[in-house]
Amino acid sequence: MPTLRRSLLALAAGLAVFGTLLFATPASAYANAFFHTQTTGNRGVDVQTIQYLLTHHGHQTTADGIFGSGTTASVRAFQTSKGLAVDGIVGPATWAALVPQISQGASGPAVRALQVQLNEKRRLSLSVNGTFDAATTSAVRTFQQHAGIGVDGIAGPVTWRNLVWHYGYPDLSAGLCDKDPDGNGTANWATAAGVAQLERATSVFAGTGNGQVPLGDAGFEHGGSIPGHSSHQVGLDVDIWPIRTDSAQCTAGRITWRDAAYDRDATRALARAIRDAAPGHVRLIFFNDPVLIQEGLTTQYPNHDNHLHVRYCERVHPNSLYTC
């Protein structure tokens, strides 16, 4: 009898564990999600979101996705109104005060902020109409399911934090061509700022007439370890290839700075465009051309003869390697 009782208890315990696994909330795809700090010099959809949210709170701000002096002034005014430290930097505390809880039926700039986030982070094409309609509700619910958080169609603090943290995918029409040197597929995901700053740089470079910029690996959609790279895990590292004298870097073989087909002047212009597109937010560019190193444009690092490794940074970041 005791043996039967122990067997029944064991069976009950097993069923309880199975039920927990079956009905528990799924693990978050990114359990350590945080609000990316944005400040003067950043650009992208996270900046545009901040601008819409500032307007939502009564601080009219142009939603152009560029964190300039006007946005800084609005942030400082908002921080003053909320009793926050007044530094013009949108870090975790300012983000938390900015994001409202909104749901179907809401309207206005906060809804536009939500819609541009969903479009960028989930590669959607919602109408950015400022109306929290059925399509927006559906997109929120789908994102919540994707993120492994409560699925209710309401954009509250947890949904905003996970959405802002989520990486974006670059527009390859912005002077880019996609390359896959390490067999990682479309590992082109990066933070919203990283994506927009790269797009701006390559769009400017396209105007030089030196062809498109080959994009190697950036990262996976939710970050994490990526084969062939010791970094590229936090959405702020991007590999691009040097420029050739025949401008055929997207169709011909990859070269090093030592090759006769290497175009130093054009690669210099590319490095400058990268820095100019993200003032104060380029931590370094690894590339071993000694002339560009001497000019202060790039930094020497082993195994970086045939590609430029751009490392973007944020004013505050959990990893000190990515702090500006």
Automatic annotation (TrEMBL):
UniProt entry tagged with the keyword Methyltransferase: no
Leader peptide range in chain numbering: 1-29
GO cellular component entries: outer membrane-bounded periplasmic space
Location of the Peptidoglycan binding-like domain: 43-98, 107-161
GO molecular function term, any single one: serine-type endopeptidase activity
Pfam family, one: Peptidase_M74
UniProtKB keywords: Hydrolase, Metal-binding, Metalloprotease, Periplasm, Protease, Signal, Zinc
Record bears the keyword Signal: yes
SUPFAM superfamilies xrefs: Hedgehog/DD-peptidase (SSF55166), PGBD-like (SSF47090)
Any one Gene Ontology BP term: proteolysis
Protein name: Peptidoglycan-binding protein
Organism, scientific name: Actinophytocola xinjiangensis
